[in-house]
């Protein structure tokens, strides 16, 4: 057929074809022409074709001109001797089917515009198909949802090759609706399971896509009466699973468990753990099912352990989890890197919580205090400003540990009795030691650190110092604070005149560096 | 509108006018109207304000007031029309009546003028004076004169007054100007008055004649004087001329005499000081400065000064002298600068120093004792020393001077070529254009001359200019450091200039330095936020850090510039991963600067130990990883974990130990493999030297063993690998020996004994009563609050009372109105009855008459 080149021409031609098809059944073959444009290389033309398809099949779905029920194969129907209307409907339903397939392929199109349009068209079909189901309901009030079509959409979104984060963020607005959310969870569970079993080496992009989708699903905290449905129903029945939050929770749990069952890449592990306590654990039907995952993560060590701590805390605190050797492991987590990792504030917040109980044995608290002060010898000033009050708070809470800073009649020792290599805090002999490290830090170059460490020289005052504002302290903030602090009105000056860039002869710079 | 004003006037009324009238109390009140408020007992010092009252008078006044305001309003209550006086300024109280009249007159004139035909150009305004046309006035000149005469004097002669007013005492109060009114007096006196008028006119005429005569006489006298004057001028022209000459050209001798007379007498100057004295002065000054530095280092200014009240001894002479004990221990301070200074002073004062220290410091010269601004005198002091030809001046000269003498010969040609004056640069670009393309000597000369040309003592704005110059120079140094290759020699010399400027303007210098540091930190913070780590900054930041240490006392406990710089360096050592040899050089430079900062205060730097540990780690070939843990930013594995390992035996053999070049920090280009290996070994050597330095520095720390244990472990691993040059092995060994040398004794910690809290004593609290009648024992705000509350209460009560009285007054008025109405009615009824009765009577009478007839 003749048409002008360019998208504008394509648009007009498609418009004419569309009208022809919708006007009379005799012109139905023009559908092939429309579907052919869907294969076009040109992005604009493809978009026009998608729009035309959207309008065409949207109208047909509303008119009920598509075959309803189990779809027989095309050949058999054409050859058979049924009525022309039935033949037409079956034929048209096949065209619709192929159109959907093509749209699903378009979800992986390089152009984002096309992708987005394909997605919204597919979702429109989902909506219309839900309202005018293509299946026969088994009984009256039977819940029908275009599961096949929707699963295809989700599969398209969870592409193993491309990064679909943009498309997923677009998809996120559909997740507001209860039914879409429910079916997304179901479809995602199925897709993740299939892909993870299908591939020998699952690509990283798939995991990232899957995580983006999964973390986008957020359940409401409480069951709300007015549920919003994407597919419009005349009347909601209480017998449908989709209306109950409990079912949603079950689906949510199945989805996450199915996802976490697989071996995840390390970066994703961290991401999951970061959102675990906040957006996953509260929505699970049975949070205790996460115990295995979290304990495994806690055993990994390093930053992952620190992150798992948060989830574990929720389980211990709210779900009665008995964790053997919890404090021993926590003790093991303390190594010089805790002061340098990104999650320092989070870790110390939790550590403060765990150690806030006054029923902890003194040896344990003493071991923690001693270990922390050992580590403080390698910490930067911003961390020291936090950890020194932390240690002092420990001593305040547990008067039995005061001997660490005040042992009036103790014998003089040759070496520190504390054993830093010992993993068990009970055997570390921390209670026999003293916090000489803090005494060393009184000579720290930063004035505030020095003052914070000097607190132990006096008897500790009773009220605890809140460390919450100190947790997030960064070096830049410390720097700014020092700049703003205007002590005297005049700035003291060096009185020994300089002799050059490297300073005097006996300066280290002059000894080890030359200008040439 | 019409009602609002009277209402306001009434509100205002009872307070102000009543008080004004009360103040003008009649001299002798009627004793029966006076009410005396009896005081129960007299209180000294208390003013009795309401001892005597006049209830009758004040009540009458109140009633009068109300009749004028409230009653008026009451009577007009149902009227919507209001009479407004539209005359100009009728209601404005801030215009005097004359002003009002003037203005009204002007307005009237204006109105008349406007009304005239605009086409009538010829007509001019008729000018008047006191309502009379000036044209008429001009015709009768003398009459106006006489009138004005009386007006001017304003008073009448006693005779006239007697004549006018002698008749009736009641007329005394009339104004004397109401002559017209007088004339309508009884006819019988008419003749008398006419006579009087004639008499006064005559009198007037006589006065005028007299005046004219006087005028004539004066004129005549003037004429005569002029004639005589010519005679006088004959006699005194010379003296006059001489006077005139002397003024423009005073005698030289006179001038000198006067100048000498007025000149301030020379102050008795101090005698020339001997060398010993000068040396002692210098030493005292240094001691003072050092004592101040030590105090700041221990942070005593912060804690001590604020809290402790200064103790004054009974023997204190109030001359600001404080016996500073630190002075004596000062010179026992061993390594570093102090020992040098001690040597110098010893050379100079030849062993006298100890005796002199013991001497009474009140002998100090006035110059030195009035030396609170300490450092600022540095230069002048130094210069004066130079003048006196102090033998040991070489190491102690002012830096600028020293440099000039050093580079004197080299700069001689440069001096000849350059212009002698430079305007201070207003922008950085200006400075750059001045300095760019010149040799090092020329640049220095330019900077020096800018300073001399714009010395603050020469002009007012120079201070600000030079303050700016500091910032520009700093920026210029940063640019030089980022150049490739960096022009370090120029920087080296410019630092001295910076130091001089900084001594002059500490405030602006510290501001520029902090802003530079803030920029660097900000950049690094951005990188850390984005990626969790940052690259080592350019050489300029390192140079800035080093300069900061030389300009400001790095040993202070807390310093507005140095403390942020320390934090900045700590960031460099913890956040910047070492990725290349260049980074190692930069890191080691930062370590050196850091250790220089704390060389006097001997403070502990955890980051530095970590960094050195990391550098040692990347230089160790076969690691066991036992006994130490690496800290961020170093990692146990990765491509950079063997950055400093040298495996080439040949390179190891040919290596010579020498200092690292600072220029390497900005780029290590064009180095062959051998050179790179040599650089590695040099880095390692510097690192080992720093480790050794740290061992010495931190030996006395309580947990020294814990701090250096990881270093020790790595050093043993180093030693185990025998492929190092001998010199390095020797360094390793001595460092290890240092580790073992410091025997640790762990004394258990004991808190300082806190003072026992004193028991609470229940002695009464005595408060001095400053003023009677006021509430005592509360703060100023509280008193003010109470006062206001009290005032409010009083005002409120007063207002309520006023309202009540108003109501009573109104009720009275209404009652009287009603009574009046009733009486009227009664009267009318009576009248009607009367007339009716009369009518009836008449009718009856008529009837009777008829009947009779």
TrEMBL record, chain A:
<comment type="similarity">
    <text>Belongs to the CBF/MAK21 family.</text>
</comment>
<dbReference type="Pfam" id="PF03914">
    <property type="entry name" value="CBF"/>
</dbReference>
<keyword id="KW-0472">Membrane</keyword>
<dbReference type="InterPro" id="IPR016024">
    <property type="entry name" value="ARM-type_fold"/>
</dbReference>
<dbReference type="GO" id="GO:0030692">
    <property type="term" value="C:Noc4p-Nop14p complex"/>
</dbReference>
<dbReference type="GO" id="GO:0031965">
    <property type="term" value="C:nuclear membrane"/>
</dbReference>
<feature type="domain" description="CCAAT-binding factor">
    <location>
        <begin position="305"/>
        <end position="453"/>
    </location>
</feature>
<dbReference type="InterPro" id="IPR005612">
    <property type="entry name" value="CCAAT-binding_factor"/>
</dbReference>
<dbReference type="GO" id="GO:0042254">
    <property type="term" value="P:ribosome biogenesis"/>
</dbReference>
<keyword id="KW-1133">Transmembrane helix</keyword>
<keyword id="KW-0812">Transmembrane</keyword>
<dbReference type="GO" id="GO:0032040">
    <property type="term" value="C:small-subunit processome"/>
</dbReference>
<dbReference type="InterPro" id="IPR027193">
    <property type="entry name" value="Noc4"/>
</dbReference>
<protein>
    <submittedName>
        <fullName>Nucleolar complex protein 4 homolog</fullName>
    </submittedName>
</protein>
UniProtKB/TrEMBL annotation, chain B:
<feature type="region of interest" description="Disordered">
    <location>
        <begin position="131"/>
        <end position="190"/>
    </location>
</feature>
<feature type="compositionally biased region" description="Acidic residues">
    <location>
        <begin position="357"/>
        <end position="371"/>
    </location>
</feature>
<keyword id="KW-0690">Ribosome biogenesis</keyword>
<feature type="region of interest" description="Disordered">
    <location>
        <begin position="230"/>
        <end position="417"/>
    </location>
</feature>
<feature type="compositionally biased region" description="Acidic residues">
    <location>
        <begin position="379"/>
        <end position="389"/>
    </location>
</feature>
<feature type="compositionally biased region" description="Basic and acidic residues">
    <location>
        <begin position="338"/>
        <end position="356"/>
    </location>
</feature>
<feature type="compositionally biased region" description="Low complexity">
    <location>
        <begin position="14"/>
        <end position="27"/>
    </location>
</feature>
<dbReference type="GO" id="GO:0030692">
    <property type="term" value="C:Noc4p-Nop14p complex"/>
</dbReference>
<dbReference type="GO" id="GO:0030490">
    <property type="term" value="P:maturation of SSU-rRNA"/>
</dbReference>
<dbReference type="InterPro" id="IPR007276">
    <property type="entry name" value="Nop14"/>
</dbReference>
<feature type="compositionally biased region" description="Basic and acidic residues">
    <location>
        <begin position="240"/>
        <end position="307"/>
    </location>
</feature>
<comment type="similarity">
    <text>Belongs to the NOP14 family.</text>
</comment>
<protein>
    <submittedName>
        <fullName>Nucleolar protein 14 isoform X1</fullName>
    </submittedName>
</protein>
<comment type="function">
    <text>Involved in nucleolar processing of pre-18S ribosomal RNA. Has a role in the nuclear export of 40S pre-ribosomal subunit to the cytoplasm.</text>
</comment>
<keyword id="KW-0698">rRNA processing</keyword>
<dbReference type="Pfam" id="PF04147">
    <property type="entry name" value="Nop14"/>
</dbReference>
<feature type="region of interest" description="Disordered">
    <location>
        <begin position="44"/>
        <end position="63"/>
    </location>
</feature>
<dbReference type="GO" id="GO:0032040">
    <property type="term" value="C:small-subunit processome"/>
</dbReference>
<feature type="region of interest" description="Disordered">
    <location>
        <begin position="1"/>
        <end position="33"/>
    </location>
</feature>
<feature type="compositionally biased region" description="Polar residues">
    <location>
        <begin position="230"/>
        <end position="239"/>
    </location>
</feature>
<keyword id="KW-0539">Nucleus</keyword>
């Amino acid at each position: 057929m003749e048409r002008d080149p360019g998208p504008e021409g394509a648009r007009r031609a498609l418009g004419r074809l569309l009208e022809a098809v919708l006007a009379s059944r005799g012109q139905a073959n023009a559908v092939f022409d429309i579907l052919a444009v869907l294969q076009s290389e040109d992005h604009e033309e493809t978009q026009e074709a998608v729009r035309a398809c959207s309008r065409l099949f949207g109208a047909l779905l509303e008119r009920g001109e598509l075959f309803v029920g189990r779809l027989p194969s095309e050949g058999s129907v054409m050859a058979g001797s049924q009525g022309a209307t039935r033949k037409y409907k079956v034929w048209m339903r096949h065209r619709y089917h192929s159109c959907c397939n093509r749209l699903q392929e378009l979800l992986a199109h390089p152009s984002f515009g096309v992708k987005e349009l394909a997605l919204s068209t597919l979702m429109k079909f989902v909506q219309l198909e839900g309202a005018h189901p293509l299946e026969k309901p088994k009984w009256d009030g039977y819940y029908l949802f275009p599961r096949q079509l929707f699963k295809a959409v989700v599969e398209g979104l969870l592409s193993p090759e491309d990064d679909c984060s943009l498309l997923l963020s677009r998809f996120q607005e559909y997740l507001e609706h209860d039914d879409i959310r429910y079916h997304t969870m179901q479809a995602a569970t199925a897709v993740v399971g299939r892909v993870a079993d299908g591939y020998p080496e699952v690509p990283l992009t798939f995991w990232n896509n899957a995580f983006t989708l999964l973390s986008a699903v957020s359940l409401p905290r409480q069951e709300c009466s007015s549920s919003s449905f994407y597919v419009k129903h005349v009347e909601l029945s209480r017998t449908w699973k989709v209306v109950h939050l409990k079912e949603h929770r079950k689906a949510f749990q199945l989805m996450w468990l199915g996802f976490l069952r697989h071996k995840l890449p390390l970066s994703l592990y961290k991401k999951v753990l970061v959102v675990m306590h906040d957006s996953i654990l509260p929505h699970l039907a049975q949070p205790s099912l996460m115990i295995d995952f979290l304990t495994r993560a806690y055993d990994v060590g390093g930053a992952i352990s620190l992150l798992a701590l948060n989830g574990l805390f929720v389980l211990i605190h709210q779900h009665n989890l008995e964790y053997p050797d919890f404090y021993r492991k926590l003790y093991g987590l303390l190594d010089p890197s805790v002061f340098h990792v990104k999650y320092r504030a989070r870790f110390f917040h939790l550590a403060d919580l765990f150690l806030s109980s006054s029923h902890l044995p003194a040896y344990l608290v003493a071991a923690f205090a001693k270990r922390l002060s050992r580590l403080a010898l390698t910490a930067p000033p911003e961390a020291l400003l936090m950890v020194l009050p932390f240690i002092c708070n420990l001593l305040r809470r547990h008067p039995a540990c005061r001997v660490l800073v005040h042992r009036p009649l103790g014998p003089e020792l040759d070496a520190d009795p504390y054993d830093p290599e010992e993993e068990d805090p009970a055997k570390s002999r921390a209670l026999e030691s003293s916090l000489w490290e803090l005494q060393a830090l009184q000579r720290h170059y930063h004035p505030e650190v020095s003052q914070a460490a000097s607190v132990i020289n006096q008897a500790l005052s009773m009220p605890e110092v809140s460390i919450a504002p100190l947790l997030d302290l960064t070096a830049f903030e410390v720097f700014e604070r020092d700049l703003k602090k205007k002590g005297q009105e005049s700035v003291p000056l060096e009185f020994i005149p300089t002799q050059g860039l490297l300073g005097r002869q006996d300066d280290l710079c002059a000894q080890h560096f030359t200008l040439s | 509108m019409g009602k609002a004003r009277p209402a306001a006037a009434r509100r205002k009324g009872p307070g102000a006018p009543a008080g004004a009238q009360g103040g003008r109390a009649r001299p002798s009140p009627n004793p029966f109207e006076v009410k005396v408020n009896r005081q129960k007992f007299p209180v000294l010092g208390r003013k009795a304000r309401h001892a005597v009252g006049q209830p009758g008078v004040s009540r009458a006044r109140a009633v009068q007031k109300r009749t004028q305001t409230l009653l008026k309003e009451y009577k007009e209550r149902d009227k919507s029309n209001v009479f407004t006086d539209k005359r100009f300024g009728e209601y404005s109280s801030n215009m005097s009546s004359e002003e009002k009249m003037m203005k009204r007159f002007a307005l009237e004139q204006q109105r008349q003028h406007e009304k005239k035909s605009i086409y009538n150009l010829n007509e001019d305004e008729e000018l008047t004076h006191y309502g009379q046309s000036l044209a008429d006035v001009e015709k009768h000149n003398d009459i106006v004169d006489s009138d004005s005469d009386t007006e001017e004097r304003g008073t009448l002669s006693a005779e006239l007054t007697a004549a006018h007013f002698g008749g009736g005492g009641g007329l005394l109060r009339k104004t004397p100007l109401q002559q017209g009114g007088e004339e309508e007096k009884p006819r019988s006196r008419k003749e008398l008055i006419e006579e009087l008028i004639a008499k006064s006119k005559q009198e007037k005429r006589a006065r005028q004649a007299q005046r004219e005569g006087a005028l004539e006489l004066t004129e005549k006298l003037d004429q005569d004087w002029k004639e005589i004057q010519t005679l006088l001028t004959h006699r005194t022209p010379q003296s006059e001329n001489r006077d005139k000459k002397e003024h423009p050209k005073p005698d030289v001798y006179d001038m000198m005499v006067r100048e000498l007379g007025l000149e301030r007498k020379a102050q008795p100057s101090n005698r020339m000081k001997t060398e010993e004295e000068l040396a002692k002065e210098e030493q005292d000054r240094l001691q003072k400065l050092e004592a101040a530095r030590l105090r700041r280092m221990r942070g005593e200014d912060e804690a001590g000064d604020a809290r402790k009240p200064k103790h004054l001894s009974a023997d204190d002479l109030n001359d600001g002298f404080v016996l500073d004990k630190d002075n004596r221990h000062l010179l026992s301070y061993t390594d570093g600068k102090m020992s040098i200074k001690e040597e110098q002073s010893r050379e100079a004062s030849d062993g006298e120093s100890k005796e002199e220290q013991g001497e009474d410091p009140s002998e100090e010269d006035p110059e030195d004792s009035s030396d609170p601004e300490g450092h600022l005198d540095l230069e002048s002091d130094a210069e004066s020393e130079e003048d006196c030809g102090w033998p040991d001046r070489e190491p102690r000269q002012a830096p600028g001077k020293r440099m000039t003498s050093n580079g004197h010969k080299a700069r001689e040609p440069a001096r000849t070529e350059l212009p002698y004056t430079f305007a201070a640069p207003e922008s950085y670009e200006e400075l750059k254009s001045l300095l760019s393309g010149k040799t090092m000597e020329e640049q220095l000369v330019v900077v020096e001359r800018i300073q001399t040309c714009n010395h603050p003592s020469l002009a007012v704005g120079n201070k600000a200019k030079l303050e700016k110059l500091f910032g520009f120079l700093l920026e210029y140094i940063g640019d030089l450091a980022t150049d490739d290759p960096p022009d370090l020699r120029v920087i080296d010399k410019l630092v001295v200039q910076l130091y001089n400027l900084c001594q002059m303007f500490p405030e602006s210098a510290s501001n520029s330095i902090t802003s530079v540091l803030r920029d660097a930190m900000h950049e690094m913070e951005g990188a850390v936020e984005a990626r969790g780590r940052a690259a080592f900054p350019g050489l300029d930041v390192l140079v800035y850090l080093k300069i900061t240490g030389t300009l400001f006392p790095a040993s202070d406990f807390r310093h507005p510039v140095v403390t942020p710089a320390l934090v900045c360096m700590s960031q460099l050592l913890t956040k910047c991963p070492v990725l290349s040899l260049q980074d190692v050089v930069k890191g080691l430079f930062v370590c050196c600067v850091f250790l220089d900062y704390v060389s006097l205060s001997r403070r502990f730097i955890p980051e530095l130990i970590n960094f050195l540990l990391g550098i040692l780690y990347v230089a160790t070939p076969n690691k066991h990883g036992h006994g130490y843990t690496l800290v961020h930013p170093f990692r146990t594995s990765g491509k950079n974990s063997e950055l400093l390992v040298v495996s080439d035996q040949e390179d190891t053999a040919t290596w010579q130990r020498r200092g690292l070049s600072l220029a390497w920090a900005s780029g290590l280009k064009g180095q062959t493999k051998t050179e790179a290996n040599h650089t590695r070994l040099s880095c390692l050597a510097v690192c080992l030297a720093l480790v050794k330095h740290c061992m010495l520095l931190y030996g006395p720390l309580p947990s020294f063993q814990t701090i250096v244990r990881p270093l020790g472990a790595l050093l043993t691993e180093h030693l185990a690998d025998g492929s190092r040059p001998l010199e390095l092995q020797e360094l390793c060994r001595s460092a290890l020996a240092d580790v073992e040398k410091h025997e640790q004794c762990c004394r258990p910690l004991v808190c300082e004994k806190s003072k026992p809290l004193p028991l609470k004593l229940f002695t009464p609290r005595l408060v001095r009563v400053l003023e009677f009648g006021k509430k005592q024992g509360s703060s100023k705000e509280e008193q003010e609050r109470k006062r206001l509350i009290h005032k409010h209460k009083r005002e409120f009560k007063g207002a309520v009372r006023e309202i009540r009285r108003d109501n009573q007054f109104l009720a009275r008025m209404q009652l009287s109105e009603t009574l009046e109405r009733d009486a009227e009615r009664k009267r009318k009824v009576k009248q009607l009855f009367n007339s009716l009765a009369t009518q009836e009577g008449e009718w009856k009478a008529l009837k009777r008459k008829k009947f009779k007839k």
